[in-house]
Amino acid sequence: MSQRGRKVSCAAASGLLVWTFAAALDFPVWTPPASMYRAHREKFLAKLPANSIAILRSAPERTFSNDTEYPYRQDSDFHYLTGFDEPDSVAVLRPNASDGRRYLLYVRAHDARREAYDGARPGPEGAVAEYGADAAYPISDFLSSLSRYDAITRSFTGNLAGVETVYLSDAGDAAWAEKVRAVVDPMRARDAGPSTTVDARELIHEMRLIKDADEITALKRASEISARGHSQAMKTAAPGRWEFEVQEALDGYCLANGAPRMAYPSISGSGPNSVFLHWYKNNRQLQAGDVVLNDSGAEYAYYASDVTRTYPASGRFTEPQKAIYEIVLAAQKEAIAAIAPGVPHDEIEKRSARVQTEGLRRLGLLSGDLEKLITDRAYQKFTVHGVSHWVGLDVHDVGKYRIGGESRKLEPGMVLTVEPGIYIPARMAGVDQKWWNIGVRIEDVLLVTPSGSECLSCGAPREIADVEKAVQSGKK
Fold it and tell me: What mean pLDDT is predicted for residues 298-302?
């Protein structure tokens, strides 16, 4: 028997905890090439004015408790341009550097004691050899490299000399940004330094909105792994199991196939918890007749996926659950069908809203003139979130949704979700009890192509028969 795809499981003595992992990777490991980051830098440098400089800070480390840090994750903008995932680093990009060194990195120097704890650091030499910097220096040199005042010549030297505009990104580190401003301000006072400081993120975020071929490869991998993980979660769901078991089946599969972490805290809400948009506790025991709303996506090579499936814990939807599910699935299909270059982004919401309103009216959950209900957005009584967002290095990725007051038109290379949902909590005013505690969301990741779209995550079952079959297969 081939090792590929063989599963190994171990049940705890209590029977409450089950772990499942892949004995061999279902997906070969893929790493973005250095050329991807180099291309991003070149494109960014080309957008900078001649007498400017860009300075980007790495994400600061964050304290989890006392002397323990959260697992480190690089700032998305910093990663986009550098691929460098070490903390306490600064990237400097100089479009017209007189010495030809347009890309500088300031990084942590080697420290034998710290490296004994945390592992080897690239150091300045690794930043050049492994990460493509034109030159690299210890981070301790960064502030002094910006500006030096010569009292004899009464002039400034350093990276900011002759610069008119600074494009700055502080990665949320306000204290660091103050230190940079403390260097810039004396130069301005003598009319010898940058006259303008600009948020570098606006340029970078517009670049990030259109994905290149390597980014699409990463996004496809993240979505394919997530979809397979959702299939595993469906097989795990059953009355008597716990929400955290469903989460573990999905998350565990993704981590066992190369995802270093999930793109966001996984949501596994059952029964009354299925109606909460962001249910992270995942601590309820599944009951017969529950629906399970599972919203979870892997991060792969820093790129996110965002996938939601809803399924019956007992293996078969009740008639009310099925009726709601059919509306949500029809709304998603209609919205996906609208995706193509040149289509305004808000057309996705409009298509979904019409189908949801028609369905809710048909079931008696809404009443009145259809067109007025749509105009009044009456469906939002049962749907309290938007139907689509960008996906990329961040699960809710950057990029404007409106340009000049108009909804942005889709372009090839954009990646976005389509995620209609209907949520009916218990004791909702004017709603029959048979609909209570039904929360349904179906979410997939779509790539805009030259001719339409490609669903990156549709490997996870969506059709009612396929969903029920997947859940039932775990009970055999």
Answer: 98
- The pTM of this model reads 0.93
Contact in structure between 134 and 100 (CB atoms under 8 Å): yes
What's the domain range around 83?
34-207
Assigned token pair, 245: 């078991």
Give me the residue label for tokens 């019956």: 312
Instruction: Using pLDDT thresholds of 50, 70 and 90, give the confidence band for residue 148.
Output: confident
**DSSP per-residue letters across 418-453:** E--EEEE-TT-TT--GGGTTEEEE-BEEEEE-SSSE
Amino acid at 429: A
Q: Select from 56, 75, 78, 77 the least CA-distant residue to 142.
A: 56
- The residues that are catalytic are 67, 278, 295, 306, 385, 389, 396, 419, 423, 441, 443
Q: Is residue 152 part of a domain?
A: yes
CA 184 to chain centre: 34
Q: Provide mean pLDDT across the span 400-415.
A: 98
The one-letter amino acid at 247 = Q
User: Token pair for residue 106?
Assistant: 């300031």
Residue 16 is assigned to a structural domain of this protein: no
Domain boundary among 182, 207, 232: 207
| φ, ψ of residue 423 in degrees (nearest 5) | -135, 125
| Cα Rg of the chain, angstroms | 26
Torsion, Cα 227 411 278 272, to 10 degrees, reads -70
CA–CA gap between residue 191 and residue 410 (Å, rounded): 44
